[in-house]
Design a protein that fits this description.
- By secondary structure, the protein is of the alpha/beta class.
- The chain has one domain: Glucose Oxidase, domain 1, CATH 3.50.30.50.
- The chain is built from 10 helices and 15 strands.
- The strands form 4 sheets. It has a 9-stranded mixed sheet, with helices on both faces. Strands 2-3 form a two-stranded antiparallel sheet. A two-stranded antiparallel sheet has the order 5-6.
- The two termini are 31 Å apart.
- 43% of the residues are buried.
- The mean pLDDT is 95.
- Bound molecules: acetylphosphate (UVW).
- The site of acetylphosphate (UVW) has 9 residues, from loops.
Length: 334
């Protein structure tokens, strides 16, 4: 458990570096290590109805992503010009944080020590290394491309439909303020939905954030996101403890940062982005990837219709060497 993790010099309690090391080799997968063959085989038992739901919001769904990030640039190339034949290619460029994504364990560091998972001191040069023969993936950095070496992510997904729960129970809830979801809320919703957490689960939480932006004009989207106050899971050390102790393989949601922004200190005073509690614990200390901006409306409808909130989850990030973030290409299979 969190309180029993070995002390790591200079780091706070809850630092899981070395926990998943094997045969003298430094681990780069973090809590994906909970996904053993037995856990994956058990997850396949969730596949019963033959129904598949995509959890991926379109890249470019937000016209001007927050924090000054670059949105989608999609260029279609006419092959009549390039190859003198009829047809098309296309070129895309975007910040991987602009729509549905996984945050790798290199994305957000433990701020006081500026270290990523395993104490890695990542720098831009290492992440974009080019050798004489082209790109050289760095095998020591916990980036998302390495998920391919372990066959992507296959797990049992468990869905916490907080938005539905709030709507049905008259709870005042606005995704575009810093309204928060506490551990007590998560447990209440899980109980209502009949969800039982198991080690190796990927927990997926719906707040209504992405669907409220879907189809809105760029101006309305900018207005809704403009305050940089956003809903999410309450960022405290006790919350982090709960997530670690549940042995989740990863966490995801439709929120822009998964956790509430801004985080607040013990006196309720707002902290800067460098004070994000769960980003530091999950990514840098635990090695637990965070999924953000997933599109969960169809998942909500399917779970309600089928009357169950667990499923087989698959995800295969882009195989871009050195990728700090990536669209998840995530599917829920029932
Ligand atoms: C930050 O990068 C601060 O947050 P996110 O991972 O939510 O984009």
């Amino acid at each position: 458990d969190f309180d029993d993790l070995p002390t790591v010099k200079g780091m706070p309690q809850g630092c899981a570096w070395s926990i998943f090391d094997k045969d003298g080799k430094k681990d780069i997968y973090g809590t994906l290590n909970h996904l053993t063959p037995d856990v994956i085989k058990a997850a396949y038992k969730e596949l019963r109805e033959g129904v598949s739901v995509s959890l991926n919001w379109p890249i470019g769904a937000i016209q001007s992503p927050g924090f000054g990030r670059k949105g989608l640039d999609h260029k279609v190339i006419n092959l009549a010009d390039a190859l003198k034949c009829h047809g098309y290619d296309d070129e895309v460029s975007f910040n991987t944080q602009c729509s549905s994504q996984w945050d790798s364990l290199c994305h957000f560091h433990h701020q006081p020590t500026q270290t990523a998972y395993q104490g890695v001191k990542t720098n831009v040069k290492e992440l974009t290394q080019m050798g004489a023969d082209g790109y050289v993936p760095n095998l020591d950095l916990p980036t998302l491309d390495h998920w391919h070496a372990r066959g992507g992510l296959v797990a049992r997904g468990v869905f916490i439909d907080y938005k539905l729960y709030a709507d049905e129970n008259g709870i005042s809830w606005n995704p575009y303020t810093n309204d928060k979801i506490t551990v007590e809320d998560l447990e209440k919703v899980a109980k209502k939905q009949g969800v039982e957490f198991k080690p190796g689960d990927v927990i997926i939480i719906r707040s209504g954030f992405t669907e409220g932006l879907t189809g809105q004009s760029g101006d309305v989207q900018a207005e809704l996101m403009g305050s940089h106050k956003v809903c999410g899971v309450y960022g405290t050390i006790d919350t982090a403890k709960w997530f670690w102790n549940k042995r989740f393989a990863a966490v995801a949601g439709d929120m822009i940062a998964f956790e509430q922004i801004p985080s607040v200190d013990e006196n309720g005073q707002p902290l800067g982005i460098d004070g994000l509690v769960l980003h530091q614990y999950f990514l840098a200390l635990f090695g637990m990837s965070i999924g953000e901006l997933w599109d969960l409306k169809a998942l909500s409808e399917t779970c309600k219709k089928l009357g169950r909130y667990s499923f087989l989850l698959t995800s295969s990030p882009l195989n871009v060497p050195g990728s700090v973030g990536s669209p998840p290409n995530a599917l829920a299979l029932f």
